[in-house]
Amino acid sequence: MASSGQVSWKLEDHPKLPKGKTIAVVVLDGWGENKPDDYNCIHVAQTPTMDSLKQGAPEKWRLIRAHGTAVGLPTEEDMGNSEVGHNALGAGRIFAQGAKLVDLALASGKIFEGEGFKYISESFEKGTLHLIGLLSDGGVHSRLDQLQLLLKGSSEHGAKRIRVHFLTDGRDVSDGSSVGFVETIENDLANLREKGVDARIASGGGRMYVTMDRYENDWDVVKRGWDAQVLGEAPHKFTNAVEAVKKLREIANDQYLPPFVIVDEHNKAVGPIVDGDAVVTFNFRADRMVMLAKALEYQDFDKFDRVRFPKIRYAGMLQYDGELKLPSHYLVSPPEIDRTSDEYLVYNGICTFACSETVKFGHVTFFWNGNRSGYFNPELEKYVEIPSDIGISFNLQPKMKALEIGERARDAILSHKFDQVRVNIANGDMVGHTGDIQATIVACKAADEAVKMILDAIEQVGGIYVVTADHGNAEDMVKRDKCGQPLYDKNGQLQILTSHTCHPVPIAIGGPGLAPGVRFRNDVPDGGLANVAATIMNLHGFVAPNDYEPTLIQVVDN
């Protein structure tokens, strides 16, 4: 069993709720709540089981927050994701994610002691450290002060040659603010040069035109950045970055500045990325770094002709995609999450079965358990991974392994061996990401069928169910204008949305084992994913630890 230190693992008995009920915990991945229209695949799909649960509102069905500060992300504009969602679901508390984590790592100096920094520092003796990211104090994708601290700390920890490849903002900050940001960084680099560090700006461009595309919408954006940053080639060449931005702003705003490179007196680029160099992408937000990360890391890459694929040591500020494990090296590790709900329940004798298919198996186990691998107690836990389809896009097999997961969960419930049966059903998210609306409708129907299978088993054993989700996706499949109307491109084609959303997600409770009088509280209106852990503990007959987010349920005396 895990090392427990001085933690008191014994949970208090709940004064009104009994123990001994089998509880099914179902997480529908990418299943948010949004107004009904033709692009809400959950609404369009035949989902009678989930529809019936919705009829239990407000006592047995409600919405909870699954994005932004509710899951530890910096702002309410930050959409949730599966990793932080399952962290919150399992931990019962909100842990710093994204920018907050980076701030803590920089303030403590731990960022320079971690495995990621040690990895890139192996290139410092003979190679160049390249820093690529958004130059902005907007705090949405990156922050100027974090870059400044990274520059200072890297030079103090052995970096002798540094090149900055910046992307101008104008989207999260005012247009034109780029000039001041570049002047600030130029001043910092000049100070480093006075200390003997060869530190310069190497390239630049606007965020919407260079590098920072997302969801594989336009690989040409990434290619323009690659050509400037890696190959040292761009249509515009300057000897001074401030001059470059001022001049190019005559033809474009900050968001759309064309790519440029800084050259020396011989018209040679001062900072192409070459064999032996180190690269750090310093954005903390993931969505607009994933495509570049793939180009920098993947040997087998066919989205554009890279011309050269330098042998580098690359690390992200954070790991941008937990499912893809991309990048494989990163400067700031995920949060250190202790005392997760599953660990408490295992210590209190709860037997757990957890199951999903490969693409989400880690979420219902590793991320649920606080970024921890393995069992807390193998005698009380069983984890089952069903292999996902490989070699095809998920929209070609949109049912994925939903029914197989439902069958495994059903069998686990009917075996009477487990107190908790926990699953993740991946369809809404994985098929939603493909942008195939018809396939996503099929995916949602399959997910609903799997839920029915599980709820039917709970009915047979007199158990309790908790059905929720980790973030939105399938409930909105189109990009929209400020009025909420679908957007079309210049050719009249609908602009498909393949990303997660910031919509709330449902949570439903029920089953024959649910004690009379149990209903959702109305005094936790801003409840989020982190409130689910205490709720589940209550349904197991325990009171959650005092520092957990409040339970969503109450027991009303009839």
Give the SSE map:
Layout lengths: L22 E6 L12 H4 L3 H7 L6 E4 L17 H10 L7 H10 L6 H7 L7 E7 L8 H13 L4 E8 L9 H17 L3 E9 L12 H11 L6 E3 L2 H8 L11 E3 L15 E4 L8 H8 L15 E4 L24 H7 L4 E6 H10 L13 E6 L15 H13 L5 E6 L1 H6 L4 H25 L2 E6 L35 E6 L7 E3 L11 H8 L13 E3 L3
Parallel strand pairs: 1-12, 1-13, 3-4, 3-8, 4-5, 6-7, 8-9, 10-11, 10-12
Antiparallel strand pairs: 2-14, 5-7, 13-14, 15-16
Helix pairs in contact: 3-12, 6-7, 7-9, 13-15
What key attributes describe this structure?
Pgm_bpd_ind, 16 helices, globular, Alkaline Phosphatase, subunit A, PGAM_B_sf, 2,3-Bisphosphoglycerate-independent phosphoglycerate mutase, substrate-binding domain, 29% helix, 7-stranded mixed sheet, 16 strands, alpha/beta, 558 residues, EC 5.4.2.12
**Rounded radius of gyration (Å):** 25 Å
Count of distinct structural domains: 2
Q: Beta-strand percentage?
A: 15-25%
CATH topology of the largest domain: Alkaline Phosphatase, subunit A
Individual helix count: 16
Largest sheet, order of strands side by side?
A: 2-14-13-1-12-10-11
- Quickly name the level 1 CATH class of the largest domain: Alpha Beta
Q: What is the residue-averaged pLDDT? A: 95
What are the segments in which pLDDT stays under 50 over at least 5 consecutive residues?
A: none
CATH architecture descriptor name of the largest domain: 3-Layer(aba) Sandwich
Category from helices, strands and their pairing: alpha/beta
Please identify which CATH superfamily of the largest domain we are dealing with. Alkaline Phosphatase, subunit A
Question: Helix fraction?
Answer: 25-40%
Largest sheet composition: 7 strands, mixed
- State the end-to-end distance: 42 Å
- What's the total count of β strands? 16
C-alpha geometry: globular
